[in-house]
Amino acid sequence: MNTGLVSIRYAKALLQTGIEKKELAEVFYNQANNFFLILNESKEFDDFIKNPVIKKSQKKQTVRHIFSSFHEILLNFIEVIIDNQREKLITDIFRDFLDMYRKYAGIKNITVYTAISFDNKYKNRT
After folding, report:
1. Contact 81, 90 (CB under 8 A)
2. What is the pLDDT of residues 4-31, one digit of tens each?
3. Tally of CA atoms within 13 A in the half-sphere of 124 that contains its CB
4. Which of 20, 46, 48, 81 is deepest in the core (most CB within 10 A)?
5. What whole-number distance in Å separates Cα of residue 7 and Cα of residue 95?
6. What is the value of pTM for the model shown?
7. Please, where are the H alpha helices in the chain?
8. Cα dihedral 87, 91, 94, 99 sign
């Protein structure tokens, strides 16, 4: 099975859930972005999630502990990924979700080059 298609299906399911519950789409995006950043910045956490030897229950318990502030639906979504043994695709799933949400919301990434230093208060301004 094409792993790209699998990750896209999971990402699309999460996006559709967020869209159906309009107020949750942006919440999912912000929390998924945090989760994605931690996966990319913490090799230890990434290795832990993707390690096939570690029990599913331990992974789920750890995720619930670390991300206790996340919406219940998003936590359940991560648990489904773990239950279905798709942990190896988790980075791709969240990357695809973030890309899909940006397209849905009309969010564009830009790069700004300046001759002088850019004030921090403007860097993440929308």
Report:
1. yes
2. 899 999 999 999 999 998 789 999 999 9
3. 0
4. 81
5. 9
6. 0.85
7. 3-20, 23-41, 43-50, 56-66, 72-83, 90-105, 120-123
8. negative
